[in-house]
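Appendix B. Chain record.
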Amino acid sequence: MSHPSVHLLGALAVGLAACAPTMPPPGAPNAVPAEAIAAEVVEVVDGDSLVITVDGSTRDARLIGLNAPERDACHGAAATKALTGLVDGRVSVSTDVEPTDQYGRLLVYLWRADGTLVNAALARGGHAIAASFPPNTTRQDVIDAAGTEAEDAGAGLWSACASTDAAAIVLDGLSPDPPGPDTEVLTEEWVAFTNPGDTAVDLSGWVLRDASTANRYRFPPGTVLEPGARLRVRTGCGTDTSDELHWCAPGPVWNNAGDEVIVLDQAGRTVLATSYGS
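Structure tokens predicted for this chain:
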């Protein structure tokens, strides 16, 4: 994993108590936590990514605890607009256990001056799906609760991007951390789906992805999941059959500790979004 400069990490750590973010007592008003430091938003990239200046350095940043659609996906433009509307340039940021992700982006909770946790506000508006990525879960309960509110209310993407094929397939097992070195057991890393209905589901052109923007697999033409059938997608290379497909990814896809399994239909609407890990 890449890391920011020691100088920047030192600044981000100011106010942290043994790297454990503080939480206000139940019922207390929203407030920017003591460990958060001032930052300025330079650019909003999409609904959960932005560029900020902090401690004199300009860095790419990713919001913790949620997954927003990309700009070209269903509700992507609306999610980007929602994040833009929630920030006015000057904000505060705090980190969690891991300060950066594998791409070198800062992983942040973003705070408005009035104490609003932007991560939770986006989930509450239905502009992003709450998604847990251990070990960065200090404020996940708040974000998850906001996401549940949006889903129950059909807010944002929960109505705009609901597929007519929602619940057509269900996650029926996964192996994100098989025994052995991750890069050497790619065919043993897999996810599996079943069709619980009584009608065949044509998966041709559907997309399987994780919570990152880097990993996407498009189901090949002619992929049909019959009623009661099970289909497994292995990360490594191999020969496809009617019940097993191969992503042939260059490296591991599913994070060992936790990730999100997302399936989109041909129109980019969400059919399935399931988190695992704690």
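Further analysis of this model is presented in Appendix C.
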